[in-house]
Write a structure and sequence with these properties.
There is one protein chain. This protein is α+β, with helices and mostly antiparallel strands. The chain folds into 2 domains: 152 residues, 60s Ribosomal Protein L30, Chain: A (2-Layer Sandwich); 162 residues, Alpha-Beta Complex (Phosphoribosyl-aminoimidazole Synthetase, Chain A, domain 2). It is built from 11 helices and 14 strands. The strands form 4 sheets. The chain has a 6-stranded mixed beta sheet. Strands 3-6-4-5 form a 4-stranded mixed beta sheet, covered by helices on one side. α3 packs parallel to α4. The N and C termini lie far apart (86 Å).
């Protein structure tokens, strides 16, 4: 006689299908707040449908990214309401650098176990950021992967698609020596440099340093590190016609990102004293004895975007964006350096 065996189920394997259905309904509700008439169909179909109109020669511009190890800070603090903003804003800023308008966004969450409140907060943040930039959240995926992720760990990835008229693409090709560099302030670290921050403060050994209050920050270290990646689309869209190029200062800092928009043979000369280096960077540098060059090669150092325009257009840009400030100029390249400081 065969011995009865315990029935094996997907739930025992760590995947909660019923919970996933409930979460999907929450996601649909958040996504619905971002829809316009161009969105055909709703979240849950096999693909997101978006009707492109209003362009003569449309060029689609796409970008994808993750929040990186900033997630580790969110997990240690148990705060997830701002991470969705980081995800959307960093991707939208990337396509903005090409002159593109964001059209639609998709997200991916890979997680060890379905935590409905956590996932709901993440998606709520994504939807809020999409609303702020006029971008539709048309789909995504939440994957329960207990064999890949463990404990509280998860990953958050985003995909954005935008469009720009072919004649209006910002590719930097018109930039020349003598052009003005204008800086737009960042809100903090945005989403880059967190592996170095975790090393400097020993966060892999515990979250205690995140609870330390710094008077120069007006908040705890953890709160400062979770300040969302700033969105720039609505701020800078009106001045795109005045620009020759735009650099989103992300991983690689000013040293690597400014040259991405410069034609061969040109470099950017930045004046260090022309913008405010945020207090969080001084704290990181002093705590970790980090060299200046390393700081500028890792962090945005207080500038989230660098714009390039003809000197005659600088006043027009600053009139529409008062916080824009001259931070340097484009010069002929000196040796192998694409960014220099004075």
């Amino acid at each position: 006689m065969c011995k009865a065996m315990d029935s094996q189920t997907y739930l025992k394997a760590g995947v909660d299908q019923e919970g996933a259905k409930r979460v999907k309904e929450v996601i649909k509700a958040h996504a619905a707040t971002t829809k316009g008439p161009q969105v055909l169909g709703g979240v849950g179909f096999f693909g997101g449908l978006y009707e492109l109109s209003g362009y003569k020669e449309p060029v689609l511009v796409s970008s994808t990214d993750s929040v990186g190890t900033k997630l580790k800070i969110a997990i240690q603090m148990g705060r997830y309401e701002t991470i969705g903003h980081d995800l959307v804003n960093q991707s939208v800023n990337d396509i903005l650098a090409c002159g593109a308008k964001p059209l639609f966004f998709l997200d991916y969450i890979g997680i060890s176990k379905l935590y409905p409140d956590k996932v709901s907060n993440l998606i709520k943040g994504v939807a809020e950021a999409c609303q702020e930039t006029g971008c539709a959240l048309i789909g995504g995926e939440t994957a329960q992967l207990p064999g890949l992720y463990h404990g509280e760990d998860f990953d958050l990835v985003g995909f954005v698609v935008g469009a720009v008229e072919k004649s209006n693409i910002l590719d930097g090709s018109r930039i020349k020596a003598g052009d003005t560099l204008l800086g737009i302030p960042s809100s903090g670290l945005h989403t880059n440099g967190y592996s170095l921050v975790r090393l400097v403060f020993g966060l892999d050994e515990g979250a205690k340093p995140l609870e330390v209050f710094y008077h120069e920050l007006g908040q705890t270290l953890g709160e400062a590190l979770l300040v969302p990646h700033r969105p720039y689309y609505r701020l800078l869209d009106p001045v795109i016609p005045f620009l020759k190029g735009m650099a989103h200062i992300t991983g690689g800092g000013l040293i690597e990102n400014v040259p991405r928009i410069l034609p061969d043979g040109l470099s950017g000369r930045l004046k260090r004293e022309s913008w405010e280096v945020l207090p969080i960077y001084r704290i990181i540098q002093e705590k970790g004895s980090v060299a200046d060059e390393e700081m500028y090669n890792v962090f945005n150092m207080g500038l989230g975007m660098v714009l390039v325009c003809d000197p005659s257009r600088a006043k027009d840009v600053m009139a529409l964006v008062p916080e824009a400030r001259p931070v340097g100029k484009v010069v002929e390249q000196d040796r192998d350096k694409r960014v220099t400081f004075e």
